[in-house]
Amino acid sequence: MKVAIAGTGYVGLVTGVCIAHMGYHDVVCTDIDKDRIEKLNKKISPIYEKDLDEFLEREVDRGSISFTTDEKKAYEDSDVIFIAVGTPERTDGSANLEYIKKVAKSIAKYSKSGCLVVIKSTVPVGTNDEIEKYINSKSEKVFEVASNPEFLAQGTAIDDTINARRIVLGVESEDAKNKLEEIYKGFNSPIIVTNRRSAEMIKYASNDFLALKISYMSDIANLCEIVGADIEEVALGMSYDDRIGAKFLRAGIGYGGSCFPKDTKALHWLSNSNGYELKTIKAAIEINEAQKLKLVREADKDIDSFEGMKVCVLGLTYKPGTDDLREAPSIVNIKYLIERNAEIHVFDPVGMNNMKKIFGDKIIYDDNIKDALRGSEACFVMTEWKEIRDLTPEIFLENMKVPRVYDGRNCYDVDEMLDKGIKYYSIGRTR
Ligand SMILES: NC(=O)c1ccc[n+]([C@@H]2O[C@H](COP(=O)([O-])OP(=O)(O)OC[C@H]3O[C@@H](n4cnc5c(N)ncnc54)[C@H](O)[C@@H]3O)[C@@H](O)[C@H]2O)c1
Q: Under a CB-based contact definition with an 8 Å cutoff, are residues 163 and 188 in contact?
């Protein structure tokens, strides 16, 4: 089949190269961002994602994937079109569906009748119904819409797609189901077929459950600090219970990224607008907002004034393995320090270029960890990249003017740091 994909971000591009990789279908990806398409045509990935460069190069060379800004060319003879554009949050917390509607309008204009439109972007329950009505109202042709939410995690996106733990197909007809099963030929993953509304809800319920788990651990970690328990021992003890599971039990400075923050707010908004309050999700959002500033609040207790003080921020991206800074806790913390006139030196192995677009010359971008640490009086660890986790107490002692480390990702051994004379704070841990 001929498959088109609208949007070449983390989801669209990875989906495109993975479908192309299976070798059954021809893929064409389209984006409104000219620079992105130019790079992709030169086999350069516009995003940082493990294994993506190799997949991209191989599939372009094989001729199984192509890239264009020309929507007509992409859509006109496609049998299936995936929509993988952004659904960012609006100021009221609801999901902004404008990007999806723009793609839908172009599909109505350029695509052939009978083409299956598949919404991969995360959208509120009822959106597939709404978009189907919208496309069909714009054209004499007939289109069916299906939901196929995406569950990949940035940093492991290729593996998560090729070896998906599940593929959810939200369909309203046998024809849509058959076409999507054909698309996923070669993927060795369980396929779950539901109606469109359940598929849309599965995505939000899954993401929000993970966000809730993180906020729950933040909450328990905060209580551990007060009552003298250790969150890592607590998490270990909890992890042996299969009903709880061992993942997502790490305490830290909360979640960020392009999904959890907006998806919790969107589900909360959807619930409220239907006259129901999702109290669990409301709590998860509130806890996370407070947790993001835990380190600087703690440092405030030790430091009278940040005015002119050299401070160091290690790790900028919202998690390791990605260059994505959307909703990264580092951003609110750096803003906090800028407002207090600190001299802020930062280091991140892949996130520096994206950070320059946010803070420009308000902060100093160092080429390596030692330069960022040198002469600083406080170090804030925001992301647990391997090179940051691997730092020894000696590196802090040798390079910092005053060895104070505020560790938002519990990277180091508490006893070792304290015994070596470092003022060390981490989340929910005791000596
Ligand atoms: N990033 C993730 O980890 C992840 C995981 C699962 C689901 N999702 C969901 O998938 C969707 C996409 O997320 P993302 O992170 O890939 O977004 P992204 O911002 O990385 O990429 C979106 C792309 O769509 C392009 N675009 C916008 N309008 C367009 C149009 N009219 N035609 C063609 N392209 C257009 C943009 O230029 C951009 O390149 C969102 O709804 C998100 O919630 C994301």
A: yes
Q: Are 90 and 270 in contact (CB under 8 A)?
A: no
- Cα gap 179→150, rounded to integer Å: 17
- What are the structural domains of the chain? 2-194 (3.40.50.720), 202-291 (1.10.1040.10), 294-426 (3.40.50.720)
Distance CA 152, CA 11 (A): 8
Ligand 1: distance of its center to the CA of 283 in Å?
27
Biggest CA pair distance of the chain: 75
Query: How many angstroms separate the CA atoms of 161 and 107, rounded?
Result: 25
Question: Candidates 31, 97, 111, 206: which one to mutate for ligand 1, based on the most atoms within 8 Å of Cβ?
Answer: 31
CA 363 to ligand 1 centroid distance, Å: 29
Q: Whose CA is nearest to atom 11 of ligand 1?
A: 121
- 12-69 pLDDT, tens digit each: 999 999 999 999 999 999 999 999 999 999 999 999 999 999 999 999 999 999 999 9
Cα 377 to Cα 92: distance, rounded to the nearest angstrom = 39
What is this structure's pTM? 0.95
